[in-house]
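Input structure tokens:
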């Protein structure tokens, strides 16, 4: 990856992709395959977006996306062929379920028969593999766009013009895309139409808490993860990182990723990390039916825009009918639902829309 921090030089390319999550990266590869010059702008230090990995105190864990669904043609082609690596692993143990009464049951056999992919050292590996041959400016948040009739100028948060390009592909969660469009200079009828569409999508917040103990504190389980089946428990998901791959934790340790349900997350958003770790340990103890001591290590990730509400998704065709004549395109999980394999497919699809509009 040609990865750089924002600098004072304006860059020119045929397409600027805003956001280097999996949708932006997948789109960039399609555009590059069609000989277009592409630059990606990423707000964070790393690519991958919500499919990310943290390395702390000798633990390696995924606070966002947990696994990638197998048996999906668009993402299988990327994972198993184009970006094939021996680091890709299918999680061996199944997912079981639990309900609001803390009753744990065997999971859906058909679902558990499908491969669930991850990477030995975390899902960030996918983003890093995909970014290798691309030009990505990290630490570069795009704050606004200005329409040049035709083309676009992109401005960073320090109001520096960082690029002038004929086409822009925005791959942010819809509320962030809406904020970008609201701050931008573009024909007001286009701006109003885009804001009306983007405003339809609602994202749920989610607190993700990592908790680690010596393995003796938690006996082996027949599952690698538990999912709440009745959506009425404060915990929505719980996974053991060492069951994804043993290399993720030091020998004889266990690390749980606990995702808290949207209502619980909202109500506890402002709690400090230690209080969240303590409250989550109590919830996990009750769920698993055993008293766990205070965790030896904990970490909290706050996702204000974790997953789009299924009933509020965008219709790609309608949005692009409005924006494509201006060289403006959108992608990401706001069109598909919060899944890595769907965001990858959506990234590719949006790139083909952009290519088609140039003919
Ligand atoms: C807690 C959690 C659990 C999940 N579990 C799963 C799972 O188990 N399986 C699964 O398949 N999916 C899961 N998902 C969903 C999955 O992670 C997402 O659907 C997918 O990663 C979305 O990719 P994307 O590229 O559309 O968006 P993102 O990953 O959000 O990428 C957008 C990128 O844009 C960057 N950005 C934002 N604003 C700007 C700006 N102004 N300028 C420049 N860059 C900007 C962001 O930093 C980010 O890197 C989960 C998500 C979360 C949060």
């Amino acid at each position: 990856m040609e990865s750089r921090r924002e600098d004072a030089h304006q860059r020119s390319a045929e397409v600027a992709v805003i956001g280097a999550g999996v949708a932006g990266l997948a789109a960039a590869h399609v555009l590059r395959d069609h000989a277009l010059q592409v630059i990606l702008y990423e707000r964070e230090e790393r690519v991958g977006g919500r499919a990310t990995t943290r390395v702390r105190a000798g633990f390696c864990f995924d606070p966002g996306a947990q696994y990638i669904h197998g048996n999906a043609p668009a993402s299988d082609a990327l994972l198993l062929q184009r970006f094939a690596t021996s680091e890709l692993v299918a999680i061996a143990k199944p997912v079981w379920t639990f309900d609001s009464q803390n009753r744990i049951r065997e999971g859906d056999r058909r679902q558990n028969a499908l491969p669930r992919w991850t990477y030995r050292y975390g899902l960030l590996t996918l983003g890093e593999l995909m970014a290798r041959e691309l030009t990505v400016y990290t630490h570069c948040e795009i704050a606004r766009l200005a329409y040049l009739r035709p083309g676009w100028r992109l401005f960073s948060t320090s109001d520096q013009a960082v690029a002038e390009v004929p086409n822009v592909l925005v791959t942010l969660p819809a509320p962030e895309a809406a904020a970008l469009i609201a701050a931008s200079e573009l024909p007001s009828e286009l701006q109003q139409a885009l804001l009306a569409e983007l405003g339809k999508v609602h994202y749920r917040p989610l607190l993700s808490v990592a908790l680690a103990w010596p393995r003796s504190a938690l006996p082996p389980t027949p599952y690698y993860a538990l999912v709440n089946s009745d959506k009425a428990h404060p915990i929505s998901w719980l996974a053991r990182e060492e069951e994804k791959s043993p290399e993720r934790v030091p020998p004889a340790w266990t690390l749980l990723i606990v995702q808290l349900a949207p209502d619980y997350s909202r109500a506890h958003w402002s709690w400090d990390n230690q209080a969240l770790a303590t409250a989550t340990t109590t919830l996990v103890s009750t769920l698993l039916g055993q008293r766990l001591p205070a965790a030896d290590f904990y970490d909290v990730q706050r996702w204000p825009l974790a997953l789009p509400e299924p009933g509020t998704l965008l219709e790609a065709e309608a949005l692009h009918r409005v924006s494509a004549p201006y060289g403006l395109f959108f992608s990401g999980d706001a069109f598909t639902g919060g899944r890595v394999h769907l965001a990858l497919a959506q990234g590719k699809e949006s790139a083909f829309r952009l290519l088609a509009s140039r003919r």
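The longest helix spans residues 340-357. The pocket of flavin-adenine dinucleotide is lined by residues 18-24, 41-44, 49-51, 64-69, 141-142, 171-173, 176, 180, 206, 208, 259, 303, 306-307, 332-333, 338-341, 343 (CB under 6 Å).
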